[in-house]
Design brief:
The complex is a heterodimer of chains A (918) and B (299).
Chain A lengths: L1 H12 L2 H5 L3 H6 L1 H7 L10 H32 L4 H49 L4 H29 L2 H30 L6 H17 L6 H8 L4 H9 L1 H31 L2 H56 L4 H16 L1 H10 L5 H30 L4 H20 L2 H11 L16 H11 L4 H13 L16 H12 L7 H6 L6 H14 L2 H7 L5 H14 L22 H12 L5 H8 L6 H11 L5 H6 L4 H13 L1 H13 L5 H4 L2 H6 L4 H13 L3 H17 L6 H29 L5 H28 L5 H9 L3 H15 L4 H14 L4 H12 L5 H8 L5 H14 L10 H6 L3
Helix pairs in contact in A: 1-36, 4-13, 5-7, 5-8, 5-9, 5-13, 6-7, 6-9, 6-10, 6-16, 8-13, 8-15, 8-39, 11-12, 12-13, 12-14, 12-16, 12-17, 13-14, 13-15, 13-17, 14-15, 18-39, 19-20, 20-21, 21-23, 23-25, 23-26, 24-25, 25-26, 26-28, 27-28, 28-30, 34-35, 35-37, 36-37, 36-40, 36-41, 36-42, 37-43, ...
Chain B lengths: L4 H14 L5 H10 E6 L4 E3 L7 E7 L1 E5 L6 E4 L2 E3 L1 H6 L6 E4 L3 E7 H10 L1 H22 L20 H10 L8 H10 L1 E5 L4 E3 L7 E7 L2 E4 L5 E4 L19 E4 L3 E7 H10 L1 H21 L3
Antiparallel strand pairs in B: 1-8, 2-7, 3-6, 3-8, 4-5, 4-7, 9-15, 10-14, 11-15, 12-13, 12-14
Helix pairs in contact in B: 1-2, 4-5, 5-9, 6-7, 7-8, 8-9
The chains are: A mainly alpha (918), B alpha+beta (299).
């Protein structure tokens, strides 16, 4: 496929340069990532209005919270000692334990949007109330607890709402930019706070916060209601979720991550505030917190704009989930090693805050995306896990601070240890994450056994029962089930009393192949059966079983046909030399037009093969009518000299299976012969195209290696495809290792081919409108076929890499009308491919371009960098007229000739006649 | 998801008795691709408008295919249910409801087509099965259809290049769903046979080894029993008879100057092995014709 694809792609790129440097195409694959990176905000038609609404809701909410937080921090540390923070943590946790069920209930009853609107209004009112109060110690304490509680609830509600509004694939694109809204809000809030604190007291910030919350509530009320939320609220019960959480490896990991991250964050927060309180004078606190928020959030915004999108695209969701613990582990360790230096601790806290509101938040949202009815699971994690952990950490800190002031270095060390544990849990997310998508796409993993198993007692009873059925087909089926498992002995000889001719014939065939003798008396009776077919079957059975005395008796039978057969079999059984050309044997002198004697001889030859059986069979094979029977016999008795014949029979569907089995029986010499035949370009095409599946039948590592080489390197497209199918069969039915790297390269090529054909088709269609000329229409139809073919091959190649997954179902979901399922399928594919190395990440990016929900023109525009530009129909057809595919080339040439001509000319050609409507 | 030995054997017994000529390897694969479906009375196996992603082998009980304003179609004992939508790749036209507690085995359409693509014998057997069913109805009803009573004369071109063959085959009803790649490949092996008015295309007792597609003009198919129909451009001469070895029962000759594209059966099935859509498209043709005939005359 190398040469072909390169040529196709080069011509598609339309560049002489590309033809002279075919390898450059693969370098271009690497640009896919940069292609994605270059698009900071990928918002598509139909998404803009909704995105902007939720963006500003978040921005205003966070702006309000930043103002409140600045006032809160400054007032608290000015009024109360830092160790009182520990009591705040406990109070916040207890408060959330009480509020979360109310929040869950509210969300269920009112829906995510309405819950957010109501909460924003309440927070606005309470904030306004705090503005009116004198800042006593109790009020300041309450304000601190309220600020934390409100932020946690509002942000949680907001992300729950957007999680229900966007699909998994949309989330991946939009959550990064959406999180920027939060950062912008924080900058705005911090900026306003910094400016106001120059002229007004800290409490005035609460007035502006109230305004921000009210505005956010108004805007949130404009967000549409979501159907999923409505469906969820009707049937949610929290209690059974506990059991589910414990049993689900993905959910308990998410819960563990939530617990570890909140514990680490609480420690870092305490460390930071204690450090600030001990370092700065109370009068410096307000301006410090305002400037800190400003710097922090400007930094976050830059991070968001420059890093988040590319990180999400590049490392995927699972990589993203590890970013925060990695950075915090490093920051925590540095803090501990530096003796908790002020600047380092502030940086650590800034990192935690920035991560929590940007990458960490996006990662969390994306990780929850594949969870069905996520509101329930999240509610449980938030209610029990996060808050309990927070309460425990707060209580622990409170206990410690009652006796002494904890060492900042120790706190930094503990935070580091928690981040390491978080990292370890995060690293185990991949498998359950993929399993989650698998389950969401509703087809479990594929574990299938393509071998015949032994019969257990229940099965045996069932088979024996079927042997007694009146229906011939059922009895034959039962006999075949036993015979295929080498259990023909279990078929009772009494079956020869059956009324049905077909049952008798099959039973005789099976008995003859065993060494049992109990059927002889009944079999001999059948020599007198009214049906000549049964009589002949009985005779054949005795011949195959080598029962000479019975054959000798038949030699005097009244039926002349039976006598002739008996003579033939006896001659064979007596092992008389059979020299010369079998077609000229005296034995066959009286054979009929249908070659009945020769066919009977061929059959028994397989049962009792003489040393020169292959020679005799090949001699008989000169008669076309005997070819099929000869192939069947050679399957059982052919020696190495039969290999060329068996290979030559592969093109014939009815003989192919026998020929393949015969070749597999001959093992290595046959395998080598097949290898030579497939590598020989002069071999007949009709033979070559059936060799890959024959090679697969060997089921050996060498077969896999050869098939991989054919899949990636053969010049003939059909041979490459059959090799892929052969590998698919081996992936399904064996545990043989199939190398990933060549498969990934093949995936790249097919994805590029898909994009090339897709871009070409889009250009032609855009340029020729709804009613293209017939010649152009033919090109479009052919391109459609080829696009579908590339898509199918991509699915099959992915199946090779992920043999345990049902990739075809995922692709069906991609083609379906359900946008939520499509989104899941896209994410699932992405998660499946990533983690197989750097090359796999490139393939994932390329596949994203193939499968993503994009308008045709947009996909073509994005693919232009990889597959070249198709400027117009004329230009595209000109490129296709040099394609490596002869049919496409010819049709393109035809289309070019008609494109410039008027539709009607003097003499109607066949094409013109057909172009007219009937 | 693995199935138990007993389940496997049960399925094997069923499939072997239903499809005795299917090769063992195909049986083994088939067994693994099936899913058990149990329906309570009144329960739906699929609803109207559902995607045709699978079809059922009813093994026990009774089900009905129902659509508003139409008579229900009942199935009991062993029956294949829902295959027509699957082959035609269209949303379910009728809902499938169990009339009593029923059991079935379901196979995904995509797996079934994969199996047909992998096994030429099974594909040919399946085609023949559908063709035989269609042929039985066709020979009774085809002469009565209005299309065959007043055929247009058509225009006969002098040359028939590959491009022209593509145009003709693309119009052939039995190739409407096979895709351009398959059509173009068939065009490369199709042999144009120019015929003068009155000239014989084939006689009765012919070897039946070819498919004939009318490229221009009119061809009459006839039988000594008096059966007589006229084929026009795009028609497969003999219709379903070509797919079930029944063509030797007929003779055909040109009513006007005509061109017929002749494709050997071997070449045709070779191409079918190369282009999976060719088998699918042919089945779709046979099934849609069968459905159309059943709609006209349910008996």
């Amino acid at each position: 496929m190398h040469a072909n694809t390169n040529l196709n792609l080069a011509s598609a790129l339309g560049l002489g340069k590309a033809v002279s440097r075919p390898s450059s195409i693969f370098a271009r694959v690497g640009r896919v990532s940069s292609l994605a990176r270059s698009r900071l905000i990928d918002i598509r038609d139909g998404e803009v209005a909704l995105f902007l609404r939720v963006f500003f809701v978040l921005m205003l909410t966070i702006a309000g919270h930043t103002l409140l937080e600045t006032a809160r921090d400054a007032l608290f540390l000015a009024k109360l000692p830092a160790k009182m923070l520990t009591l705040v943590y406990v109070s916040v946790a207890v408060g959330l334990l009480l509020l979360t069920p109310l929040n869950v209930r509210l969300t269920r009853r009112a829906g995510a949007r309405n819950a957010l609107v109501v909460s924003l209004l309440l927070v606005a009112i309470v904030t306004a109330w705090f503005r009116t109060r004198v800042p006593s110690a109790a009020v300041v304490f309450a304000l601190y607890v309220f600020g934390t509680l409100s932020a946690t609830l509002l942000i949680g509600q907001f992300w729950q709402l957007v999680g229900s509004l966007f699909s998994a694939a949309q989330s991946r694109r939009l959550f990064g930019p959406l999180a920027s809204g939060g950062v912008l809000g924080a900058i705005a809030g911090a900026g306003i706070a910094t400016a106001l604190l120059e002229v007004t007291p800290v409490r005035s910030l609460l007035s502006v916060a109230t305004l921000a919350y009210f505005s956010a509530a108004w805007l949130a009320s404009k967000v549409p209601l979501d159907e999923v939320a409505s469906a969820e609220r009707a049937r949610t019960k929290l209690a059974p979720e506990l059991t589910k959480l414990g049993k689900d490896p993905f959910l308990w990991r998410l819960a563990a991550i939530a617990a570890l991250s909140i514990a680490a964050s609480t420690l870092i927060d305490y460390l930071y505030r204690a450090k600030v309180a001990s370092t700065l004078h109370p009068s410096q606190l307000g301006p410090f917190f305002a400037r800190y928020q400003l710097v922090l959030n400007v930094g976050s915004l830059l991070l968001q704009l420059t890093v988040t999108s590319s990180v999400v695209q590049r490392v995927g969701v699972l990589g993203l989930a590890l970013t925060a613990p990695i950075l915090l582990t490093a920051g925590g360790a540095l803090s501990a090693l530096s003796g908790a230096a002020f600047f380092v601790v502030v940086t650590l806290k800034a990192t935690d805050s920035a991560m929590r509101n940007s990458l960490g938040r996006v990662a969390s949202e994306l990780l929850w995306a594949p969870v069905e009815n996520q509101a329930r699971g999240r509610g449980l994690v938030d209610l029990l896990v996060t808050r309990t952990t927070q309460a425990l950490v707060g209580a622990g800190l409170l206990g410690v601070t009652l006796s002494h002031t904890p060492s900042p270095v120790l706190l930094a060390g503990c935070a580091t240890a928690l981040c390491i544990a978080w990292l370890v849990v995060g690293m185990g997310l991949r498998a359950p994450y993929i399993a989650r998508f698998r389950s969401a796409l509703s087809r479990g993993s594929v574990e299938r056994d393509f071998t015949l198993g032994e019969l257990d007692l229940t099965s045996l009873e069932m088979v024996v029962e079927s042997l007694a059925k009146p229906e011939a087909n059922e009895v034959i089926a039962a006999m075949n089930v036993l015979a295929e498992r080498k259990r023909a002995r279990l078929i009772p000889a009494l079956i020869l009393h059956h009324n049905e001719e077909t049952v008798l014939i099959r039973a005789l065939e099976l008995f003859a192949a065993t060494d049992r003798k109990d059927w002889f008396p009944l079999g001999e009776r059948l020599l007198e059966h009214t049906s000549p077919r049964v009589r002949q079957a009985a005779l054949r059975a005795f011949a195959r079983a080598g029962v000479a005395p019975v054959l000798q008796r038949i030699a005097t039978h009244a039926d002349p046909t039976l006598r002739a057969f008996a003579a033939l079999y006896l001659a064979q059984l007596e092992d008389k030399p059979l020299p010369g050309d079998p077609l000229c044997w005296e034995l066959f002198r009286d054979d009929d037009e249908d070659h009945t004697l020769k066919l009977a001889f061929i059959e028994t030859l397989a049962a009792h093969p003489p040393s020169d059986a292959t020679r005799i069979l090949l001699g008989l094979a000169r008669l076309p009518a005997l070819l099929s029977a000869v192939t069947e016999s050679l399957e059982l008795v052919g020696d190495e000299s039969s290999i060329p014949f068996l290979i030559s029979r592969l093109p014939f569907a009815e003989e192919r299976l026998s020929a393949r089995r015969g070749l597999v029986r001959l093992a290595e010499p046959a395998f080598q012969a097949l290898r030579r035949a497939i590598l020989d370009e002069t071999s007949a095409r009709r033979v070559r195209i059936h060799i890959p599946r024959s090679i697969a039948a060997f089921g050996t590592p060498a077969a896999v290696t050869l098939l991989v080489a054919l899949m990636t390197g053969d010049k003939e497209g059909l041979v490459r495809y059959k090799a892929l199918r052969g590998l698919g069969q081996l992936a399904r039915e064996t545990s043989l290792v199939i190398e990933v790297k060549p498969t990934l390269e093949e995936l790249k090529r097919n994805a590029l081919e898909y994009l090339r054909l897709f871009s070409a088709r889009t250009a032609i269609e855009q340029d020729t409108g709804d009613k293209p000329r017939l010649a152009v229409k033919l090109v479009i139809e052919l391109l459609d076929d080829k696009i579908q073919q590339s898509f199918d091959r991509i699915a099959r190649l992915l199946q090779l890499v992920h043999r345990g997954d049902d990739v075809r179902t995922i692709f069906s979901a991609l083609m379906g009308a359900d946008s939520r399922q499509r989104g899941r399928a896209i994410e699932f594919l992405d998660a499946l491919i990533r983690g197989l190395g750097r090359e796999a990440d490139d393939v994932a990016a390329l596949l994203r371009l193939v499968v993503d929900d994009l308008p045709a023109s947009e996909r073509a525009a994005r693919a232009a960098e990889l597959v070249g530009v198709f400027a117009s129909a004329q230009d595209t057809l000109a490129q296709l007229s040099e394609d490596s595919d002869a049919i496409l080339r010819d049709l393109a040439v035809h289309a070019i000739t008609v494109l410039g001509k008027p539709r009607d000319s003097g003499v109607p050609s066949l094409a013109q006649l057909m172009e007219r409507p009937a | 998801m693995t199935i138990t030995d007993a389940q496997r054997v049960k399925r094997e017994l069923l499939l072997r008795s239903l499809f005795p000529t299917m090769p063992l390897a195909a049986h083994v694969r088939f067994i693994e691709l099936l899913d058990d479906v149990e329906l309570k009375a009144g329960e739906f196996a699929f609803a109207q408008g559902d995607p045709p992603d699978r079809f059922l082998f009813l093994t026990e009980g009774r089900v009905a295919l129902e659509a508003k304003g139409q008579l229900p179609l009942e199935f009991s004992g062993f029956a294949v249910v829902g295959v027509i939508d699957a082959v035609l790749d269209r949303p379910r036209v009728r809902a499938c409801r169990a009339l009593e507690p029923s059991k079935a085995l379901a196979i995904r359409t995509v797996d079934w087509f994969d199996m047909l693509e992998d096994n030429a014998e099974v594909a040919r057997g399946t085609t023949r099965n559908f063709a035989t069913r269609l042929y039985e109805r066709w020979r009774e009803l085809a002469p009565k259809l209005p299309h065959y009573s007043t055929p247009p004369a058509g225009q006969v071109p002098k040359d028939f290049a590959t491009y022209d063959k593509i145009l003709v085959l693309r119009q052939a009803t039995f190739l409407q769903r096979v895709g351009m790649q398959a059509v173009a490949s068939l065009a490369t092996v199709a042999e144009p046979l120019p015929l003068h008015a009155g000239e014989s295309l084939f006689e009765a007792n012919n070897d039946g080894q070819y498919f004939y597609v009318v490229g221009a003009g009119l061809i009459e198919l006839s039988q000594s029993s008096g059966f007589r129909i006229t084929h026009t451009v795009g028609d497969l001469v003999g219709g379903p008879a070509s797919f079930c070895n029944a063509l030797p029962n007929y003779a055909a000759h040109a009513l006007t100057d005509a061109v017929v594209l002749r494709i050997s059966e071997q070449d045709f099935y070779d191409q079918a092995e190369e282009h999976g859509r060719l088998v699918r498209g042919m089945l779709a043709f046979l099934v849609s014709e069968l459905e159309a005939i059943q709609a006209v005359d349910p008996e």
